Amino acid sequence: MVDQDLLTIFLALTALAILIQTGILVGFYFVSWKLSHQVEQATQATRNILGPVQAAAETLQAVSARITRRSA
User: Fold this and answer.
1) In the prediction, which pLDDT does 41 show?
2) Cα distances (angstroms) measured from residue 55 to each of 8, 21, 25, 52
């Protein structure tokens, strides 16, 4: 027969290990959610900065093309 005290200790340790693993997974979830949110904000900020830069580059390209056509 199995000793009841050892079985109780084993089950308690197993339950504790499962709770610790659950806590770690929940922590990973919240950290990844927060990181994802920060990446989304950084992406949006980059779009806000690069939008005008892209428009200026396109304008400069058009002006360069006009100058090249007139000088040729």
Assistant:
1) 95
2) 70, 50, 44, 5
